Fold each of these.
Amino acid sequence: MILDANELGFSAEAEMRDRTQMQFIAFLARQGAHRFILKGGMAMRALYGSTRLTKDVDFDGAESLSQQSMRAQMPKALLQAARQAGLNGVEVQQTKAGDRSSRWRIAGRTAEEVATIWEVEVSRRGVPPADFIETRPFETPIAYRIPNFNVRVYGPAAMAGGKVNALLSLNRSVPRDVYDLHELIRNQADPAPLWISRVAREFLVRKRPEVISKIDRIGFPLANSELLPYIAPAVRSSIDEARWDEIRLDVAEHVDRWFAYAIEHAKPAEELHRDADEIDFAGR
């Protein structure tokens, strides 16, 4: 069961952002958005009912998804979502239009004149294999009055792999990646089978220490400022510096085991008939 942001103890602004994001995803789903695959924080809510709210909505898009199609569809979907959620003074702006990634920003005001803003990004860097993508019912909070809908979403293995990708980003040190990996581990996600089938042994060996080192560097001060405000207060109150260190250690140990098993069973790049750097950890 997915609770609304108010039930989780968040502000009116956070509730409006959450409601509008769900309206937007529902609108795309009703339009038959089979070419979009939900990932990131909203996918964690669809998979596990995560209590972490998100500042943005992320999709992978199929190669057949054109820039022209997205330019026509995204502003319409965002404006429709804002209207249905009750957001006022809405402005939608495309902030990125690259060959591999496009981004839009939506801004508006709640009925109490509190500003809210969030972004949607669509990546066209490929998608995971079909076996690692799921269609899930998205059970929306009753208070949002959004009919439940089905959504294509990263499965647990691809989701965990995507979080490892995020940890490897050079300009990104984001505690939500560690927190989400902890949630995935609690729910027994295991990306090793995906890595064995899609990632060259050389790449796994080279990236293993980088991932563990990145987890170690994401300390409590960063988590306190960038993660905890987006976690339900009841959960947030249980995460102090000691607890965050336990979470990091647990994540590092499990991720290291994923790497160890995958390295033992993976094939070299030559046998996979691909460059060692060609495939990422989400299997795209």
Amino acid sequence: MMDQIIVKVPSGSVRIKDARCPKGCRLNNPNILMSDKPVVTVSARLRGITEPLHFNSYFGLFEYETKLEVYAGDILDLSCPHCAASLAVEELCVFCRVPMFALQLPDGGEVRACPLVGCRNHRLTIVDLDAQLAEYYNEERRPKM
């Protein structure tokens, strides 16, 4: 059993540096940059077409690039671009009632988000706070605890 502490951080202040699929494949892509940093790349399937989808790696920034024609209200089926493992989880979005997707982080953390285009329901779970803060914040931006 774990207690929860809710910490609110400004959008774009925490970068996801080591996202993985459920089987452990690395999803950060150093070959494509957004905000001058490597993106998180997944496979997105929509209307029978599968293409890479590149997310900005800063948590809370909803920027992405894909060759798919996506419109508000579309629901993307997301998977690992390396092993094809589904990123969907059983939890339903509290707003859209569709299954959320998850990106695994080191030490048991994860990012969960809604795959419905236009929904901004997302959350970052940190299990080892000291390790995660050391990883995500540089020294001058690190919160004092």
Amino acid sequence: MILFRTIGLVALLSVPSIAGAEVKKVTLSEMVLTPTSLAGVSSAFVAGRFGDPGAFAAHATMQAGSVFPPHTHPDARMSLVLEGTMYLGVGGTVDPAAERRFKAGSVAMTPAGVRHWMAARDGDVRVLEIGTGPTVTEWVE
């Protein structure tokens, strides 16, 4: 239920005017995910784009053992864990002892500008990430 509400909200926020807008059905399981530059991480946009103004939603998967290294974003992010368990830590260095577990059905709320990382420690993870563009990922050196 949370997934449907979240996708509906993103779709509504992404449409400049409701008048004349079409309702589109999005099935995450049928989306073609594209590998990213990070090993084991693939993604596809559900709505919007990082570089465009307004809300966006990105469907992402992380293979077991993959780590999305420390980074920040200028916008706040909501990460809805759809499958698996995502581990998220705050700071500029990956430290498994400092991670919090987010099981399927939970949402990680990461404020704008906060250094953080994500990991798939126990198995594959599927996430719906929602934010506001234009935005970028700034890697922590």
